[in-house]
Design a protein that fits this description.
CATH superfamily of the largest domain: NAD(P)-binding Rossmann-like Domain
InterPro entries: D-isomer_DH_CS, D-isomer_DH_NAD-bd, NAD(P)-bd_dom_sf
Pfam families: 2-Hacid_dh_C
Organism: Halobacterium bonnevillei
Structural class: alpha/beta
GO molecular function, one term: oxidoreductase activity, acting on the CH-OH group of donors, NAD or NADP as acceptor
Keywords: NAD, Oxidoreductase
C-alpha cells in the first residue's frame, strides 16, 4: 500500500441524501493546514483528497485519498482504488453509539407499543392498547447479528437494561462477555429463542440476503426483527411474507434494499412495522465526529503512519 503525500486541498463532495450538510463539515475542518472546499465530483482537478458519501468515478483520476463518511463501502470499487494507489478510509466506529441508541429506541418502541399511541394521537384517540400487548424489555432476550463496533454497542446497552444477550459473528468475540456467540453458519439456531433479532453486520457478498425465509421461519412468532445495518442483508419479500403470515410479531426497519422505500411498499401500511428513513446515525454531533476522524487522517497522511480506518 502506498501512502499519499500531505493533503494540500481537501474537497467535500456535495451530496444530496445525507442529513449532515457539506458546508457544516467544511466549517468543522476550518483549523486544518490545507484548503477545505465544497465541490462537485466533476470539479476536482486541483484537489488531492475528497470526503464523500458515495463513490464517484471522477475520484479515480484526480485524488490520492478518499474518505467516506459512512461505515459501509460496498459501492466503492476497491480493486480500482488499489490499482491507482488511492487510499480509501471510512467512518467505522464514529456512529456505533448513535446507531445503538436508535436500535434500543426501536426495541423499546416495539416492546411498549409506543408507535401505536403515536398513530392514535392523530385522531385524539385516548384508548389504550390491550393490557397484555406491552412487555418488559429487561426480561427479554436479543440476538445481535454482527459483533463489530456497532453490534458491541447494541449488546452492551441491551445487557445494561437486563436483557439476555447473545450474538452471531465470524469470530468468537470473547471480550464482549456474551454467554453465546454463534458462527454465522448457525444463524438459524441463534435466532430461534430470541425475542429480538438486531442486525448490525456489514453488507458483504457473504451477508447479502443472510436473513432469508428460513431464518425468519426459525424466529419465534412473538419475535421482532430490527435492522439498523443495511437493507440488502434481509430478503425483503420474504420478510413481507413473514409479517403478513404472522410468522413474526413485527419489525423495526431503518434500512431497505432500495432506498427510499417505494411508496407502494406494503411495509408502510403494516401496523406492526416501524419504518425510519435510514436515520439511525443522525445526530447533531455527527459532523463533529466525522471531522475529528478526517482531521486526524489529514494530519497523518504524508507521514510514515497508516491512516485510521484504512480500507485500501
Amino acid at each position: 500500500m502506498t501512502v499519499p503525500t500531505a493533503v494540500q486541498r481537501l474537497a467535500i463532495v456535495a451530496w444530496g441524501d445525507h442529513p449532515c450538510p457539506p458546508t457544516h463539515l467544511r466549517d468543522q475542518l476550518g483549523d486544518l493546514d490545507c484548503d477545505v472546499v465544497v465541490r462537485d465530483a466533476t470539479d476536482l482537478d486541483d484537489c488531492d483528497a475528497a470526503v464523500t458519501v458515495y463513490h464517484h468515478d471522477e475520484f479515480l483520476g484526480s485524488v490520492d485519498w478518499v474518505h467516506t463518511i459512512r461505515s459501509g463501502y460496498d459501492d466503492f470499487p476497491l480493486d480500482a482504488y488499489e490499482e491507482r494507489g488511492i487510499t480509501l478510509t471510512n467512518s467505522t466506529g464514529i456512529a456505533g453509539d448513535l446507531v445503538a441508541e436508535t436500535a434500543l429506541g426501536l426495541m423499546l418502541t416495539q416492546a411498549k407499543g409506543l408507535h401505536r399511541y403515536r398513530d392514535k394521537q392523530r385522531d385524539a384517540d385516548w384508548e389504550r392498547i390491550p393490557w397484555q400487548r406491552p412487555f418488559e424489555l429487561g426480561s427479554e432476550s436479543v440476538c445481535v447479528v454482527g459483533l463489530g463496533a456497532l453490534g458491541s454497542s447494541v449488546a452492551t446497552r441491551a445487557a445494561a437494561l437486563g436483557m439476555d444477550v447473545w450474538g452471531v459473528d465470524v469470530r468468537p468475540v470473547a471480550a464482549l462477555g456474551l454467554d453465546r456467540v454463534y458462527d454465522v453458519g448457525r444463524i438459524q439456531a441463534a435466532v430461534e429463542n430470541a425475542r429480538f433479532v438486531v442486525l448490525t453486520t456489514p453488507l458483504l457478498e457473504s451477508t447479502r440476503g443472510l436473513v432469508d425465509a428460513e431464518v425468519l421461519a426459525a424466529m419465534r412468532e412473538d419475535a421482532y426483527l430490527v435492522n439498523v445495518s443495511r437493507g440488502g442483508i434481509v430478503d425483503q419479500p420474504a420478510l413481507e411474507a413473514a409479517l403478513r403470515g404472522d410468522e413474526i410479531a413485527g419489525a423495526a426497519l431503518d434500512v431497505f434494499a432500495t432506498e427510499p422505500l417505494a411508496d407502494e411498499s406494503p411495509l408502510w401500511e403494516m401496523d406492526n412495522v416501524v419504518v425510519t428513513p435510514h436515520a439511525a446515525a443522525q445526530s447533531n454531533n455527527y459532523g463533529e465526529k466525522v471531522a475529528t476522524l478526517v482531521r486526524t487522517n489529514a494530519r497523518i497522511l504524508g507521514s510514515d503512519r497508516d491512516p485510521w480506518n484504512r480500507i485500501v
